[in-house]
Amino acid sequence: MNRREILIGACATLLSGPTRAEETFKTEEVAPGIHFRRGVDEDATPTNSGAIANIGFIVGRDAVAVMDPGGSLIDGQRLRATIRQTTKLPIRYVVLSHVHPDHIFGAGAFIQDKPQFVGHALLPNALTQRGEFYRGNLDKILGAGKAGPIVQPTLLVKDKTSLDLGGRVLRVTAHGIAHSDCDLSAVDSQTRTLMLSDLLFVQRVPSLDGSLKGWVAELVKLKAVGARRAVPGHGPTGVDWPSASHDLERYLGVLLRETRQAIAKGVDIGQAAKTVALSERERWKLFDDYNGHNVTRAYKELEWD
Amino acid sequence: MGLSKSSVMVGVLLLAALQPAFADDQDAQERAARWKQLQESIFPKREVLDSGGIITVDAPPRALDAALVPVELHMSSPVKGIYLIIDDNPAPMAAHFVFGPKADPHDLKFRVRVNAYTNIHAVAETQDGKLHAATKFVKAAGGCSAPAGSDEAAAMADMGRMKLRLLGDFNAGKPMQAQLMIRHPNFNGMQMNQITRMYTPARFIRTIDATYNGGQVFHMDADISLATDPVITFGFVPHEKGQMTVVAQDSSDARFDHSFDVPGTPAPAG
pLDDT of B172-202, one tens digit each? Predict the structure, then answer.
């Protein structure tokens, strides 16, 4: 969609990143039995194979759950190899936290395990609308066929559901429109760990694709969840909760306030994209790549109020 | 000079959508050839002159959101109308805007979709019928086939809702800027429907007429390149308080109209 992706797409046939599927990667055990790989703070490139989001797995007594299978087929295959290095237990659930490609295109690697693919009730719609578009873009970046298949969820969450791993239950919540229109979070009550995917960004600039007002509202609810540790979709794999929400809340607050001010003053959308939330510029990685887009989204949402 | 060929254009753009973005790495020579070809089809047997300072066009060199690229036009003299042409979009003619007697024809802002790296041409038609073109190169891709978002579903729900925002203070007889917003998904025929997996049929705002106290401010013919929820900023010259009436018609012949109060001070007598 953006210039970089197009340029990279053009180069994708010339460069070839690492492609061996049996490779494993380093994960961090953020709480006992909860392992996450930290994604790099970049956009997808042939070199990083789309491994840019935090993805991981939770090991119970009887089974394993994956929360976010990864940003490409190869990212998913490496996650699977990494799980197999740790445990031989069956992979019973693969949680697809939302529609964005950096989180879910690894799902194809897990089809052989015949898990339940768990998604928000609105995920099928979102995937039908956008899946091929995302896959086309990712293939342009990584090389034809490397994105991976589009895997639809088999277990839909409308409100809440529980995933039993034996002696360990993950409670999955379907959120209202926030970061996207199909966000899921999961809590492991045993370790009081809240896996938030892109409902939480740390260090990497947030990206808004749902509703600014909705995201602010969902964060208020999430802070009341009795967790002491959270796993963000981007940034360090384990952070204190709810204190780690401060930066995100501050950013969203500035975005909301300054976009409203721009609209009230008659500053047009193009100018607003260049001026809103600049006080946040030094605080986030990839700020220049996403902030203007976030302002555009926010402006479009708020100008009809 | 209408845009009544829209349905044909939509057919053509569906074919274009199935091809890879052909124009991404087009060089300057190809762009010039493209523009020459467009000139011949849009302005047959007419000469298109340089901008000559009469018109300028501005847009972000690299679009933040290809489905919503703000474009600003400035005209230094009172022109009859302008054509906004996005060379490498499936239907290049984005808008033809004709100023009425109540208009202040100096500044215009649009929000457009941009499908590939492209030149955007703004062509002004002067009162004596001369054409002057200004150019801006924009790097953006995928704005036409970018999938509809959830806010687009909301837009469909209150299609036809309008807002008019007055920018600046009312001074009788002095130009005033206004921003017209119309809720409309402006489906361009390239977005896939979530249920049927078929392309959502094109449905877009085709004409907008604005009058102030009965006098024409502008008439616009538009096509599929305007962004979802079209927003147009234009100038008009109110001599007294009154009503801005807007009538929009879409490609399915739905008609939306709304009148907005423009509060002001009475014009001086005489």
Answer: 999 999 999 999 988 887 776 555 556 777 8
Which CATH number fits the domain that encloses residue B228?
2.60.40.10
CB contacts of B163 in chain A (<8 Å) are 304
Give the model confidence (pLDDT) of A77-120 as tens digits: 999 999 999 999 999 999 999 999 999 999 999 999 999 999 99
Give the domain extent around B168.
6-262
Per domain, the residue ranges of chain A are 3-244
Point out the residue among B62, B70, B197 whose CB comes nearest to the CB of A268.
B70
Query: Which of B4, B2, B1, B11 shows the shortest CA–CA distance to B189?
Result: B11
Inform me whether the C-beta atom of residue A129 falls under 8 Å from chain B C-beta atoms.
yes
- Helical H runs in chain A? 3-11, 73-86, 101-104, 123-142, 212-223, 246-264, 269-275, 287-302
pLDDT in tens, B139-162: 877 777 666 665 556 657 789 999
The answer to whether residue A136 scores a pLDDT higher than 70 is yes
As a residue count, chain B comes to 270
Residue A29: CB atoms within 10 Å: 14
Extract the tokens encoding B212: 């102030």
**What ipTM, to 2 d.p.?**
0.77
Residues of chain A with pLDDT > 90, as a percent, come to: 88
pLDDT at B136 over 60: yes
Residue B17: what pLDDT?
42
Hey, of A14, A127, A134, A268, which one would you mutate to test binding to chain B, going by the most B CBs within 10 A of its CB? Answer: A268
pLDDT tens per residue across span B208-261: 999 999 999 999 999 889 998 999 999 999 999 999 999 999 999 999 999 999
Q: Are A56 and A36 in contact (CB under 8 A)?
A: yes
- pTM, two decimals, is 0.84
Compute the mean pLDDT over every residue in chain A, rounded to the nearest whole number: 93
Q: Is A234 in contact with A41 (CB distance < 8 Å)?
A: yes
Asked if the Cβ–Cβ distance from A1 to B150 is below 8 Å, we say no
Q: B230 in a domain, yes or no?
A: yes
Q: Where are the alpha helices (DSSP H) in B105-219?
A: 150-157
What pLDDT score was predicted for residue B140? 79
How far is B192 from chain A, CA to nearest CA, in Å?
6
Report the gap between the CA of A179 and the closest CA in chain B (Å).
12
Is any Cβ of chain B less than 8 angstroms from the Cβ of A264? no
Region of B139 (left: φ > 0; alpha: ψ -120 to 50; beta: rest) is beta
* B22, B27, B65, best to mutate vs chain A, most A CBs in 10 Å: B65
C-alpha closest to that of A195 among A220, A170, A217: A170
Q: What is the pLDDT of residue B40?
A: 94
Out of 3.10.450.710, 3.60.15.10, 1.25.40.20, 3.40.50.300, the CATH code matching A3-244 is: 3.60.15.10
Count structural domains, chain B. Answer: 1
Evaluate the CA torsion angle B186, B190, B194, B198 in order and state its sign.
Answer: positive
DSSP B30: H
